[in-house]
Amino acid sequence: MSATLWILLGGVAVVLLYVIFAFNRLVALNQRVKNGWSEIDVQLRRRYDLIPNLIETVKGYAKHEKQVFERVTLARSQAINASGVGDQASAENAISSGLKSLFAVAEAYPELKANQNFLALQEELSATESKIAYARQFYNDQVMLLNTRIQSFPSNLIAKTFRFREREFFNIEDAQRGPAQVDF
Amino acid sequence: MYEQIAKNKRRTILMIIGSFVFLGAVGFVLGAVFYSPAEGIVWMCVGLVIAGIQSFVSLRYGDKLVLRATRARAVSPEENPRLHNLVEGMAIAAGIPKPDIYVVPEQAPNAFATGRDPEHASIAVTEGLLEMMNRVELEGVLAHEMSHILDRDMLVNTVVGTLVGAVVLITEFMFRMWFWGGLTGNRRSSSSSSSGGGMVQVIFLVAGIALLILAPIFAQLIKMSVSRRREYLADAQGAMLTRYPPGLASALRKIADSPNAMRVASNATNHFWLNEPTRLRRKGEKASWTDGLFSSHPPIQERIRILEEM
């Protein structure tokens, strides 16, 4: 009698411990996903702040490249107003490709390329670009871990009970995989 | 790559447990052989307490000491924006706070990370490294150092290092006690010389002396083996951070070919560096197996090979 009782109690204790462990693990991963997202946000904002400066500097040397300026400005305002992970990602794509063509345009103006301000902005932007890539990498890794936990048995039962939801990946298609910096 | 990291981690945990057990065993056996089993337990406790105190002190103040010993100088973001940007990028990729950044006035290309946890961490690079490496290579090196911070290798190194230190200290102390005690005729031999257990005692004594001599050597071997494991682990994890193993591989190749020897190299700080500072081997010279056992870092060619296969 008492033996079966003990075994029963032991079993309940093990299950309870597992529930606590799995729940805490999900909370921790959820938190890491949130941190990852806010880091992406910080870097994206940094890029929004740098773009007007860059356009002003380039304008001083290359007045009639209006099209490129407009494209980048438009992409920037769209990105600022974007909501949701998917929208944000595609808006950021537009900025990245706009910036690429802006720097391609700059290639044609030797005085611009010698401008100290321009060079500093270029370093800042390319560094921000790679920080965005790393923030995205960290975020996506954590999303993957979280989603795997939410889907796999038996942690999916706990996730369902406590209403943990899967997160969306932040996908930016990039032409060249490899070192996450952009050489303008 | 995930499995490799997991495997390395398991081995490191075993190593740490192993070195604690080893220290305890050395203290106990030596105490038991030269004194009595009860005193063996006392010696075991003495060893563990010494190691504990030493670990605590060096974890608390070790990073400052190392930075001062290598004459490292803090650099501001204005002074070197590129270095700061790269370190920040790696910190973001690792999901930890940005560490403090130092530059060591030294022409040999090298780098190290220190600090007891990711919240109190520093990365130092030599001037030679900054001059020699391009952006991708520098990033590879920084990713390697960031992995040391992420894995709390300072903690592992310190714990293992002080355990080794304690083994050396205890064996030395006992050796002296026994030596002087032996000259004046110690308790044990005077009390039991007439009881006929002489032969057994002699065997115990010989084994004890052998242990006195061998224990510090074994301790050193354990320490270096742990250190080498951590280097492979940091290489693999660094590659995970940049997602670009060739960056670090190319940096290591440049380091292997660099002729500069380190001025600040010393055995005390060896295991901190990206590559072993004092190692100066001519091209084509073969490494002997004893070199492998006593070095704090794996052979650089082997590291390059593994990175290239990733």
Walk me through what this model shows:
The complex is a heterodimer of chains A (184) and B (310). Chain A contains 6 helices and no strands. In chain A, 78% of the residues lie in helices and 0% in strands. Chain A is mainly alpha-helical and 184 residues long. Residues 175-184 of chain A have low confidence and may be disordered. Chain A has a domain at 41-161. Chain A starts with a helix and ends in a 23-residue tail after the last helix. The longest helix of chain A has 58 residues, at 2-59. In chain A, 27% of the residues are buried. Chain B is mainly α and 310 residues long. Chain B folds into 2 domains: 2-61 and 155-221, no CATH class; 67-153 and 228-309, Metalloproteases ("zincins"), catalytic domain (Zincin-like). Chain B contains 11 helices and 4 strands. Chain B has helices at residues 2-34, 37-69, 81-94, 127-132, 135-150, 153-184, 187-192, 198-242, 245-257, 289-294, 300-309, and strands spanning 73-74, 100-104, 111-114, 122-126. In chain B, strands 1-2-4-3 form a 4-stranded mixed sheet, with helices on both faces. In chain B, helix 1 (2-34) runs parallel beside helix 6 (153-184) and helix 8 crosses helix 9. The longest helix of chain B has 45 residues, at 198-242. Chain B is elongated and about 70 Å long. The termini of chain B are close together. Classes of the chains: A mainly alpha (184), B mainly alpha (310).
